[in-house]
Recover the amino acids of this structure.
């Protein structure tokens, strides 16, 4: 959780000041992320699910213009460019028309340069607004939501960029970084957890997305949860054992995807004619490191792997309740995105549980409302609730997640066939 | 629940005798259902999700030949026709190749007549087997599974047939029956249920599908559940209030389906140029009766309706725990399929809760394994587990469900866009 | 050409009498063709391009009811069934709505029995009309068009049925017939034809479709045309030489089809694991006979084969001008459909040019209007002209073409990817 | 026709010198065309049929590197970048692998800057080669082919760019230019042409594409050809008369396209709520000028318009034979692309026949080989022949055609549904 909250809980003025500092930090990071990218790089859209980097940068600014500047300034607000209202709306039906998602990559104008000018103009206006006038608590909530929204898109910028660059047969490198060497990992063990009533979800104070609330009781049967995530080497054993050719291991719909898409390994993995495995990363093509946390698999592959090994995926309630026991500490986790490495890293010591900074972990839970879930009124209320169907929850965080974004109660969610996220596997089993 | 179990629990011999009687009853019903249909009617496949009646009849027989006769008789079993093994396998990968699902309507040979001969031959052999030799408990479990499997397909035969005939612009009638008149329904009330640990799922004894087990604890927050399902008249109010044109009421994916498919009302409803509503039923075209339980909506429509009315759908745990309180009694429910009426009927008295014999009720629960769920080994183990993704649970039962098939713990499941089942709406709300 | 015309040219009364006799012969053949087929067989629609046999039988009757009975009888005509007007209209926009082509296989009702009653009723009324009253010349033209229309559909009934039955993995047999043995074929030679002005197309008298007219002049450069069509054995050489794997032999669009559809041989050919070739025929599965005329290839394959062999396909003008020189005689050609054999037969003697009774022959000519082409007014005018785009002309006739249907000027046409017709290859080359 | 040939016919040395000058002129024009465009503009690919401007620029350079530098320099040729061989090959199967056409818009690297460096490097090497050494006649033929290939792509750059920019809701302007005012057009008359043997196609000398040869005889029936093309105002009459709603005017396949694509007017035309028509042009949004030549219609629309007006489209032989009579003079036609206006212009005087500089004119002829057509051996031979199926010939030239590219024998070709080219209508009729 971001340090904003520690300060912010003291007073409204303190909260506004802290949020303004955080605003500067977060907004700066998005721009820093495109260092070394060209305007052309920032325009690619390699599939409808992914968006151009330029679109992300503009959409994130649109959020602050639409939900902070417009309502705060009213008639005094001069829109930066009226056309941007439609062009950079993502899905907020309440705000009006949207440009078709699959055509975001066709927008050469506004140029990247103009989008950066848009960012700067909106940033200055927000800073002027927040520096000159006390905003209501409700408006500060929106500012804070905007910063967490920006966190989310920062991770998407990296996952989308990875896919964009991968479609280029020249396989461009985003950031130079040394490949890490295999160092060995400790054996995977299962930590036993007792049955009983537990509580999950975010409490009433501090920032959390609407879908993490309310905090509520659940009943857990006894279970065991793995001490770390599955490694590339372990997943290779599954491949070598014919995992991709044994329908009895797969969900029926997963088998259909595997067949239609020709899946033979995680996304970005390649095998050369001599059988050697490499993988495309944002730090260039790399030899597959057996001991690093494996990622870029769909829920279907995660589920099939678990079945193959005689285990299963945890539910999100199991994951959340076990996280504390596993010893993962979110703040200060040095594995989060640092501006250079964008790849899961091997644990530094035997105790590393791989909870937050390497790969997201698929859970066996569908993304549905918690008991008592309520959406906020208005367009901001469209934030999460409207996607609560046909998606599975992932927990934890990845090497592409920015600092300040994670909590144990955080619910990430994607359709079961999704592979372009840094999605890996933590196992569980019945007691 | 079928009466087989009351007897069956006494002794193995008694169980075998009871199952044999039930075998005769259930197998006969499937054939009785095609009275009045021609071989041509029984060959239609109007969409990949639906199967020809002839295919259902053959597949149900294939089940008994493959899972009862083959293992019981071994080398003594002479297959009725070797080609049927591939042709009438539905999805059991463990049994070998399958004929493509979408091409089932192209199979003119074997003829309906030969499929009926296949049924008769297998029925005789099963009867001879069960009459002459004591089967193991495990084999009796398979026989019983086969009968419940046949129940399921009997309901599908009716829902599929409805869709098949509807595609014919002449709108053929399956069974003549009087349309029922509007008689008024009692006001919908919400029955309050307290919070606490509850148990759901089927116990260890008696027949249940694998997905209903094990019985397990859940924690329920306090909630209210509707005393009856939503009527056609109530749903018309939603339509008239622009329910199909207000994206804020819909899940995002639901809105996409509504747009792509042009949904403006439940499936089978039609509005004539003067604004009058009629509906296609297996008993012919009928004037829309305002007071009858509404059905043929997707999960997306059910969810949007609930949001419009300021309520929500129940979870499956809420539904199951509330069923007893609602007073629904499964055995003897006269609303179940009687061979003539295949349409939800209005309650006979004010207390009718519409739990089992009118329409299935969408729940807010995704179809996922219960804690401790285990699949059976072998091909029979493919029964339910492999479909546990991207489907929503429906509870209750419908006017097309045959007698002997239902339990309070029964879990029906379909993708959220499904509309050709008799699927309706029961509301719930937070306390 | 049918003998009707020899008589018909004498007097109107003579023409009407001759047409009535021909009406009886042609209408009877369609019904005779379903001997041995079940109502279920007659309902299959294996792809949108093919129609169920029952639909053909009804549509052909619809033609006479709509274009002969209705205008001749006026208010005295009582429609057999009003619903048939929409159900069995194929594409005549001028006549009103049509049932969707791809859903013809879903029509179980009317039953085959009722369609046969429809045929009989309309046949009796047409016979009564023609026996009792002199029809105008224009109306007799429509009757004659209807008979040739029925000829066309008789061939389609066979090609469609072949595809329908082939989709059944049991591979049903339509007609029992001995497979013919290889007997050797004469060497293929090229007959030289001089340059100059020639005339093609049908003259003003006698029956011909509108697209064969007017007869007109063309200029032909000198060319050579093959003495016979390509055999299965010759085509196997193309396959064995990697013909399906060499893009330089193929039109670009053809290569795309070959790749997308996985073409490795003509439709209906199969190679067993030992390399032996068989083919599915309406007379059952047969060993591939090397000396028989090859068929079931697309234009793309015909064109690639010709390029491989260093030749080309003839234009339709070349074909028509060369037909006389090749010695083919249409009337009395014993290779035409005889009610039993539905497969190309090997020549009985060395001179057999394979012009009319074995396989259609793809030409290099697009299907376009002849100079001076005019469509007839009204719905009948929709007959051919509206399809004059993106189709290639085939000339000759096949083993599935009924007696009385062919002329040297006859233009058959299909999209270049079509393979379910009896379409083969005759080569040509530049002088 | 380019002036190269007047000189070139004298001597090989003279031809080489003239070609080198032309090389400079043509290669410069392609780069001049992107003045005012950003690298982002040059990366858009709005549909698979259109390519990014950057891709065009690179592919045109690839042609000279692959077909001129490589064979001429042999081992001395150092490829500019090995990856470009795959990346910028369009369809030459003989040259090896190609990057998927639909993914050309995903290539951010190489950057536009690097592609321009590629152009410059190859231009310098070609100039050095041609300045230092006498090339063979065959190699000079390839150079000349490369220049005409570049002409073709220059026109595509404009048509593709128009589509790319149109997909941006901000509707960017490529070149500022005044809209032209309506000035009136002379009445359309039909020039009568006699029957007889005529010759069409390119002769043996001078440059022409392979598909224009050999020159050959055709027989023409008497016909009339329109003195000018159809105007926007005339086409509006067709729209206002319900032309888009009358299936009897349309080819069957055309009607399907119209329905599926929702065609209500030519591409780029828009009607505001008050009924006023505007059109998107490369010179910005403009009021529809009634007297200007209409364009951006498919063959299907051109054909339906002709049928509506009681005429037809000319064949390509009719067009070519009539061109001289119509008085169009190719060289010096000031309507060709001048670097600013990219829109059909109204005739300057009554005699303007609109043959070459306004819009391409659909003909009724399918794109097929001329009698005696032979493809060149090797990869260059893939130039035109492999596309000879399912395309219709257009004749003339458009406002986007560069100077030096046209001849009366020129055959342009596109699928019948194509609308993004500057394609208009010239009528013909039977005598």
């Amino acid at each position: 959780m971001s340090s904003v909250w520690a300060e912010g809980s003291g007073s409204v003025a303190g909260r506004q000041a802290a949020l303004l500092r955080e605003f500067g930090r977060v907004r700066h990071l998005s721009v820093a992320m495109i260092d070394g990218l060209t305007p052309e790089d920032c325009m690619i859209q390699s599939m409808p699910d992914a968006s151009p980097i330029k679109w992300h940068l503009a959409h994130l600014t649109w959020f602050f213009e639409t939900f902070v500047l417009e309502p705060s300034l009213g008639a005094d607000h001069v829109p930066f460019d009226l056309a941007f209202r439609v062009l950079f709306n993502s899905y907020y039906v309440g705000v009006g028309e949207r440009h078709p998602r699959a055509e975001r990559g066709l927008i050469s104008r506004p140029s990247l340069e103009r989008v950066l000018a848009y960012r700067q103009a909106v940033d200055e206006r927000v800073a002027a607004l927040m520096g000159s006038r006390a905003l209501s608590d409700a408006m500060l909530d929106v500012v804070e939501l905007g910063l967490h929204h920006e966190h989310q898109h920062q991770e998407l910028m990296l996952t989308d960029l990875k896919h964009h660059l991968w479609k280029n047969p020249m396989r461009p490198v985003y950031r130079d970084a040394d490949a890490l060497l295999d160092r060995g990992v400790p054996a995977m063990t299962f930590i036993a957890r007792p049955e009983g009533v537990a509580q999950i979800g975010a409490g009433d104070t501090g920032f959390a997305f609407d879908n993490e609330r309310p905090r509520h009781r659940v009943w857990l049967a006894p279970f065991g949860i793995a001490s770390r995530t599955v490694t590339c080497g372990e997943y290779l054993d599954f491949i070598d054992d014919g995992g991709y050719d044994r329908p009895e291991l797969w969900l029926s719909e997963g088998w259909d995807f595997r067949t239609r898409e020709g899946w033979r390994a995680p996304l970005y993995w390649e095998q050369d004619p001599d059988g050697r495995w490499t993988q495309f990363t944002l730090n260039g093509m790399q030899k597959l490191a057996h001991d690093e946390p494996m990622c870029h698999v769909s829920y279907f592959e995660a589920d099939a792997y678990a079945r193959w090994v005689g285990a299963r995926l945890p539910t999100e309630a199991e994951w959340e309740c076990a996280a504390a026991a596993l010893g993962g500490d979110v703040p200060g986790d040095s594995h989060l995105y640092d501006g250079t490495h964008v790849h899961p890293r091997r644990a530094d010591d035997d105790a590393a549980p791989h909870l937050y900074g390497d790969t997201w972990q698929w859970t066996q839970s569908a993304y549905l409302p918690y008991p008592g879930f309520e959406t906020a009124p208005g367009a901001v209320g469209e934030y999460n609730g409207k996607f609560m169907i046909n998606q599975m929850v992932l927990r934890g965080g990845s090497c592409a997640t920015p600092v300040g974004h994670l909590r144990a109660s955080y619910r990430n969610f994607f359709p079961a066939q999704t592979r372009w996220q840094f999605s890996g596997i933590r196992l569980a089993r019945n007691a």
Observations:
- Confidence is low (pLDDT under 50) at residues 1-9 of chain B.
- Residues 299 and 416 of chain B are 5 Å apart (CA to CA).
- Chains B and D do not touch (no CB pair under 8 Å).
